[in-house]
Design goal:
The complex is a heterodimer of chains A (99) and B (372). With 99 residues, chain A is α+β, with helices and mostly antiparallel strands. Chain A has 3 helices and 5 strands. In chain A, a hairpin with a 4-residue loop joins strand 2 and strand 3. The chains are: A alpha+beta (99), B alpha/beta (372).
Chain lengths: 99, 372
């Protein structure tokens, strides 16, 4: 594995495929991402990213939206978003739709 | 079912919530796999829980914190009410995994299951070669049915896992079996080295791979993971008779998961009924919350207080929880012993001897053996 953070294409439209669900669970005190034989606790940031992965917004617009909402540096948000989305895509838990 | 005051009091923050439930809907199954983990004495159809009871159980499970339900058996497709059961689990908010041989579920029923909210399908394959696969399953035509159902699952865009139970007869076709999983459109493949419980325990000598075959399998899985990164996820369950340390069985007794049998008994693991002097409660009588928190069986080996040496003072005691209670019982005669798979167990040499005690006897295929 190289040290460089992978950058997903900004025009890709991320989407949780069928069988991957972001749910809020009271008993577990927060958001969880459910997938085949997997469950991931999603912290508040991951949950905000994944909520925006509807297949409509591009990666670029998700990053812009988050940068505006949280007043955080765009580069930092892009790095976080890329890492999360690429990691999920590698596990077949996210689709990055590029026209 | 209402929770008892004792259960509410006992549910202190320290008690973990279960996240996974194995729902054994029936012990009926058209296949006869010799490695089946079901008990030797199977529950008959007449005593199975009905749809309404499963519906209540799913609601109780979700309230308790369960996130994943595995709809399994036997063959869940043998239940005529499988679609209603799936819909009930979905309505409870549970993530539904269908664990099936594919024999008993056609494309039309899969459509109904999809509409009912089914999230994920796992199909077993017995081998990459059809004749061998059907021989292992003791069902001619099983292989073809699995391919058909896999295609239907993929057409519906439901995620597909292929589960391969690995043992002496098929381990050398590891690469071909993973290739088959990819060709079937699976996003995950589970390489499940046989665990010796139930029917697998009866057939241990003929299922047990050699040490060389096991080393080959472990090495090959790593190579396949590199080769197929991003294409398919490969999960592997360790062949623990050749390991140095034991597996953290079920994530620790009464920590992460629970098993509901076809007649409604709730077990900490699928082989727990082999352990003598354990008292199991039923969903027919008690709420799931009561069973999880205060039933004697769930508390019998929870945590570390029950441990004997060498587990009791071992640095790994909260890593692997001393391994498997049922395996300790089966091999040492005492469910409180360290799982002898662990090289630190004073009885580890028994595991070494059992791994070497292989033969080529015919399979004792899984069949219904009526008691009495």
């Amino acid at each position: 594995m190289s040290d460089a953070t992978p950058v997903v294409p900004l025009d890709a439209r991320p989407r949780l495929p069928r069988g991957v669900r972001l749910v809020h669970n009271e008993a577990h005190g927060g958001w969880v991402l459910l997938a085949p034989e997997r469950l991931f606790k999603a912290d508040a940031i991951a949950a905000e990213i994944l909520k925006r992965c509807t297949g409509d917004a591009t990666v670029g617009s998700v990053v812009d939206d988050l940068a505006g909402t949280y007043s955080a540096p765009r580069e930092r948000i892009l790095a976080d978003v890329s890492a999360l989305l690429q990691g999920l895509a590698d596990k077949k838990l996210l689709e990055l739709v590029v026209e | 079912m209402h929770d008892s005051p004792e259960a509410r009091e006992a549910a202190a923050p320290a008690l973990p919530r279960p996240i996974s439930m194995l729902a054994e809907l029936t012990h009926r199954c058209p296949l006869g796999c010799p490695y089946c983990s079901n008990p030797l004495v199977l529950d008959g159809r007449d005593s199975e829980l009905d749809t309404e009871t499963w519906t209540r159980v799913f609601d109780e499970a979700a309230a308790l914190g369960v996130l994943h339900v595995h709809l399994s058996g036997g063959e869940p497709g043998a239940r005529r009410d499988l679609v209603q059961i799936t819909a009930a689990a979905h309505a409870s908010g549970l993530y539904t995994n269908l664990i099936t041989s594919a024999v008993g579920i056609n494309a039309a029923r899969l459509d109904e299951l999809a509409d009912a909210g089914l999230d994920h399908v796992q199909i077993s394959i017995q081998d990459s070669e059809p004749a061998s696969a059907d021989h292992i399953a003791n069902y001619r035509g099983a292989f073809a049915r699995k391919k058909d159902l896999a295609a239907a699952v993929v057409r519906l865009k439901i995620p597909l896992t292929v589960n391969v139970v690995v043992h002496r007869a098929n381990v050398e076709r590891m690469v071909a079996m993973v290739d088959l999983a990819i060709a079937l459109g699976a996003s995950r493949v589970e390489i499940a080295h046989v665990q010796y419980y139930g029917w697998a325990l009866r057939n241990r000598a003929v299922l047990m791979p050699t040490a060389e075959q096991t080393a080959f399998a472990v090495k090959t899985v790593e190579e396949l993971r590199q080769r197929h990164h991003g294409k398919i996820v490969i999960d592997a369950v360790t062949p623990d008779y050749y390991a140095r340390f034991p597996k953290p069985c079920v994530g620790g007794w009464g920590q992460r998961s629970l098993n509901v049998t076809p007649i409604g008994r709730v077990l900490p693991c699928h082989a727990a009924e082999t352990i003598p002097d354990l008292e199991f409660w039923s969903v027919r009588d008690r709420s799931l919350a009561d069973i999880w928190t205060i039933s004697p069986s769930f508390n019998a080996f929870r945590g570390t207080d029950w441990m004997k040496e060498p587990c009791r003072s071992c640095a790994r005691r909260e890593v692997d929880f001393g391994g498997c209670r049922c395996q300790a019982l089966a091999i040492t005669g005492d469910a409180r012993d360290a799982d002898p798979v662990c090289h630190l167990s004073p009885l580890h040499d028994r595991v070494v001897a059992l791994a070497a005690a292989r033969n080529d006897a015919p399979y004792a295929y899984r069949v219904f053996e009526r008691s009495g």
